Amino acid sequence: MQRLVGRRAGMSGDGRPLEEITALDPNDLNAQDVARLAVEGVRIERLAMGMPTDVSKAIDTFTLREVRDLVETIVEAALERMPEAEHEGYVRFVREIGQTRSNGRH
Predict the structure, then answer these.
(1) Quick one: DSSP state of residue 27?
(2) Which of 9, 29, 67, 100 is deepest in the core (most CB within 10 A)?
(3) pLDDT tens readout for residues 2-13
(4) Is pLDDT above 70 for 57?
C-alpha cells in the first residue's frame, strides 16, 4: 500500500529509520499493471470480507453472469483511464487470462 500512496522518511514506532517511498504515478502504469492491480484488489477485498478468492469456490456465491459483468465493468473502467493506444494490448491480456483459466492452465 505504501508503494501506491508513498511514505515520508522518518522513524518507525520501534526507532528504526524508514526510507522515503515515492508514490506510484498512475500515468506510468501499463495495461498489464492495471490488470494485476484490479485482480489483486478484488482478491484482497474478498479475503477481508471472508469470501472465496478462487473462482471455482465463488461459483456457489455468484452466478457466472454476475462474475462476467463484474469483469466487464473492471475492464471498461480501466480502458477509460488509459491511453487509447494501449487498449488493444490490455484487452488481449485480459482475454488471455480468461482462456488460460478456462483451459485449466495457471
Answers:
(1) G
(2) 29
(3) 777 888 888 888
(4) no
Judged against a pLDDT cut of 70, whether residue 105 lies above it is answered with no
Cell 488471455 belongs to 96
Return the axis-axis angle of helices 31-48 and 87-102, rounded to nearest 10°.
Answer: 50
Enumerate the domain spans of the chain.
25-102
Query: At 52, phi and psi to the nearest 5?
Result: -65, 145
95 touches 75 (CB < 8 A): no
CA distance 35 to 30: 9
What is the pTM assigned to this prediction? 0.38
Task: Locate 87 and state its grid cell.
Answer: 487498449
Integer Rg of the chain from CA: 17
Look-up of cell digits 473492471 = 74
- C-alpha grid cell for residue 13? 514506532
